[in-house]
Amino acid sequence: MKQGFSWPEKVEEFENQTPLKNLDCETVTHDNRKETEQHNEQHNDVLAVESQRICITGGSLNVKCVSQIVFNSHVIGKKYLENLKQFHGHSSLYGEAGLQALYLSNLNTPLEHGQMGIQAVYPSDFNAQSAASRSVLQTMYTYKLGHRLFNGTCVWSQEYWFRASPYPGQNSLQRVIIFGDMGKGEADGSFEFEDFQPASLNTTKQLIEDLNNIDIVFHIGDVVYAMGYIAQWDQFTAQIEPIASTKPYMIGSGNHERDWPGTGSFYQNMDSGGECGVLAENIFYVPAENRANFWYSTDYGMFRFCVAHTELDWREGSEQYKFIENCLASVDRQRQPWLIFLAHRVLGYSSVDFYVEEGSFEEPMGREDLQKLWQKYKVDIALYGHVHNYERSCPVYENICTSQEKHNYIGPLKGTIHVIAGGGGASLHEFASINTTWSIYKDYDNGFVKLTAFDHSHLLFEYKKSRDGKVYDSFTISRDYRDILTCTVDSCPEVTLAQ
Fold this sequence. Notes:
- This protein is an alpha/beta fold.
- It folds into two domains: 32-163, no CATH class; 174-485, Purple Acid Phosphatase, chain A, domain 2, CATH 3.60.21.10.
- Helices cover 18% and strands 22% of the residues.
- The chain has twelve helices and 24 strands.
- Residues 13-90, 94-135 and 495-499 have low confidence and may be disordered.
């Protein structure tokens, strides 16, 4: 770890994220396939400048939707542009490099009010690891949404902006927001068929107010609580548009997105209202090999995130179990030291009343199969939704705290810290009256988590309440790469005399 590092009292804004000034942009009218084939000719021009202008025209007046372009070498050309789909108010990460990805409606389909055109400015041989490409990665991009009328005139939205994501291993200030179970709301209570998410607007408001100090958001399940009412999805995407139009907004799938009898969900309840995961899978992009599975890994600078899908089988021997192990095992901890596990249902530890009544303190069959992976690959923090409150455990393995420290961890954790962050907005769940040795902090309130990686050796964890945005719980981790390599119980292969 860096010598002389001092934890700041307040994390200052790392760099100015004020959008670029409005630049002249010629409306694109050519067929998008011809424009795509011109990318090679633009290569040298792109590398010679620090910022680029993206011109987009689209077939929608719904300006809360974010039209987007993929920045990655293996998605160049009309072959891939034909497969892009429309998403609502949503930025995301794409591929192994964790690049910002932006999407348009299917570019091969004629639109009712004119042909969609696109002009993208990025090198055709884009490579996240090259020095030249890294300069593109750090660029800020501005964009507008447009609708072409029959008479050829365009109606334009306001100008939006985003900053390209850090490449894997990049040493820079990186700030991550994580919560679950937020839902949506209306300030005046209108358009509500069920007022189940009373604090949703509070969480959204806090994130918008602190947007310049946020780099990426993870909403880990129970996203909207639409349960079959598609208008609720429109309401939700409008609510988060100020966030998701500028920052990557990644989601996980929860019971209210996926569960329905006879559809392959692990739980045979009706919590999705018949959506069966279809809306979540098509409105929000995630870099999953199989979109229907919705489990995925993604890299963001010094972070590796392994996102599980708790509504599908995760037990040992399952397809998802193999994915989880591969995600944890494949990260280079020297470049990406902060290994984070995300899931909707609690697969670790919780003191909520309904788990305690079952005698499990977790989703039944949760940690029994997965804790060996968390321990073996030294997962730093596991975060969950589903339970509508906040709780933090000590670094723990097999119900035993591996450290007695509570706020300033130095060196190996020797276990995984488990966090319940399901208080994004939904009505709260009561804690059981029992006290456990592994539970360090409990809060019966709505809130969210913020992770700040200062460098490869220093991480700050903060829990903030949605009501005021203030920090109510926090801890730090200070260590270097050799600490990650340290063998602890069940984290290294057994060594015998025969070996």
